[in-house]
Each structure stands twice: as structure tokens, then as C-alpha cells.
Amino acid sequence: MTPTLVRQHLPQVGSTPRVDLCARARDWSEIQERMLVPLYESVYERLEVGPGTRLLGLGCGSGLALLMAAVRGAEVTGVECHSAERLALARERLQPEAPGARARGGARLVRETPRRAAPSYTLVTAFEPIGCTAGDSDGLAELLAGAVTVAERGTPVVLAGWGPPERCATSSVLRVAGKLADPLRSPGSWRPALRDDLEEVAQRAGLRPDGSGRVACPFGYADVDSAGRGLLSTGLFDAAIAVAGQEQVDKELTEALHPHRRADGTVWMPNVFRYLIARVP
């Protein structure tokens, strides 16, 4: 198995608040990324990921889903379009630099999108959930269309999205971002997930839907501070911070988390995520 990390450069659109990108990536890696582990496990189990699987992970973040696939014996390639800091953390996971340490599965790192000449992939995943903010699927269809050119015919392509708001406790918290960002009519404003979000993206990418599933992914945190850091690390509150400022966002986010705080101080928010399996024609 040969994990490969790829960074894809996309143009910057609009302004973003000034944040410590390294700290945010670390919060993502240490707090938030693990919330979707049940989703990764469910997909890998259903598609029997293991030795012989050549996986292309789009939006690989800090590499947790890649690591889980590599442990199963898969050969993995990760594409991280938006965050060099998350990619650096993925590199730490999959290609340790400590003296005497061995790269997991002989990891190699490249900075280009896989070309048509590369070995064909047998599974493509896009685990970053859509259907939470307006415009969050923009560009995904084009990214998928490029990815499937290096995938075998019939290859499963997995898309992930938020479930219905009534089954996602975190929806009430994410509405804070939409409320504060609304004066700018920002494309990052919260919106409820729609039933056909995933199917529409697959259709635009020229893919053929071939099954779906739902997975419970509760968001659990040690305390309110940890919950706030984890949720901010997603970037979903950036537009709100740009409008209202960090202090106001922190205040309203803390208030929104209060109903989900348990007697022992932990924060628990049940959620359901949906995934779609589409096929390369």
C-alpha cells in the first residue's frame, strides 16, 4: 500500500478572516475530524476496502480517512485542495520524519493532481459533507469529473452530505453562522440539507447513482471550549467572523452549545449523515 498526498491549488475567492491556520488545522485533526469515523467505517465496510483497493480521497483533510483505508491494506492517494496546513498534518500521519521511522506503506508525496497516465483508481471518495452551507458543492462536480478520468469504468465514487436538519442536532448551532453572516448574503451562510444534493452533484459530474446509506455520526466533545474549537476548525463560521468579529461569534456559539451540554460538562449532539455511491460510466 502506498499512501500519496496531493495538494491541488485553487484560486482564492473573497476575503477570509485572519486566523492561525496551523492552530485551526490542529484543532481539526485532534478534535473534529474523528466525528466522521462512523461514516468512513460504514463506507469502507460496504465497499470491502482492503488489499487491492486503490483509493483516491478528495478533500483528504489531515488524513484520518486515508489512514483508516491504509490500515485495511488499501493503496491511497489524498487530494487536499484548500489547506496546506491540514496536508502537513496528513503527512505527519502517513510519512513520519522521525529518525528510523518508516513511512506507512512506503508513503510518497506529490503536489500534482493525478494524471491520466497514473494507475487507475478503484474507489474515489469525497467525504467532506455538503448540504450545510449555500454553495458548499460549488466546484465539486468539476473536481469529480477530473478525478474519474483516472478511475476504472464502474469505479464507485462516494459523496457525503448532512442529513435532514431534524436529525442533526448540530444544525441549530450552525444556524448561528448563517444568522451572523446574513448581512453579506455570504455563500457560506447556513442552509438546510436538501434531499437530492448528492444526486445533483453526481449528475453534474456525469456519474450514475448506485445506492446510498445513512450513518449516525454524533459530535461529542470534552467541554464547550473543545466543541467551539472543533466547530470553528471546519471553516463554516468564517463568513460570520468576517461580519461580526471573533468575539461575537464565540459568544453566540457558546450560547448555542449550552442546550447540548450534559451534566458532566461534555457536549453531545446526535447527527445523521448521508452518503451516495455513484459509478463511473
Explain this structure.
The chain is α/β, with parallel strands linked by helices and 281 residues long. It is 35% helix and 20% strand. The strands form 2 sheets. An 8-stranded mixed sheet has the order 4-1-3-2-5-6-10-7, sandwiched between helices. Strands 8-9 form a two-stranded antiparallel ribbon. Helix 1 (21-32) crosses helix 8, helix 6 (170-181) crosses helix 9 and helix 9 packs across helix 10. The longest helix has 12 residues, at 21-32.
Keywords:
single chain; 281 residues; eight-stranded mixed β-sheet; two-stranded antiparallel sheet; 10 helices
Proportion of residues in β-strands: 15-25%
Give a count of the beta strands, DSSP E runs of length 2 or more: 10
> What is the chain-wise order of helices and strands?
EHHEHEHEEHEHHEEHHHEE
Structural class: alpha/beta
Arithmetic mean pLDDT: 85
Number of helical runs?
A: 10
Strand order across the largest sheet? 4-1-3-2-5-6-10-7
What's the alpha carbon Rg, rounded to whole Å?
Answer: 18 Å
Give a concise summary.
It contains 10 helices and 10 strands. It has 281 residues and is α/β, with parallel strands linked by helices. Strand 2, helix 3 (64-71) and strand 3 form a beta-alpha-beta unit.
Secondary structure: elements and pairs:
Layout lengths: L3 E4 L13 H12 L4 H10 L7 E5 L5 H8 L3 E6 L3 H11 L13 E2 L13 E8 L9 H8 L8 E7 L7 H12 L15 H8 L3 E9 L2 E3 L2 H9 L5 H7 L1 H12 L9 E3 L2 E8 L2
Parallel strand pairs: 1-3, 1-4, 2-3, 2-5, 5-6
Antiparallel strand pairs: 6-10, 7-10, 8-9
Helix pairs in contact: 1-8, 2-3, 5-7, 6-9, 6-10, 8-10, 9-10
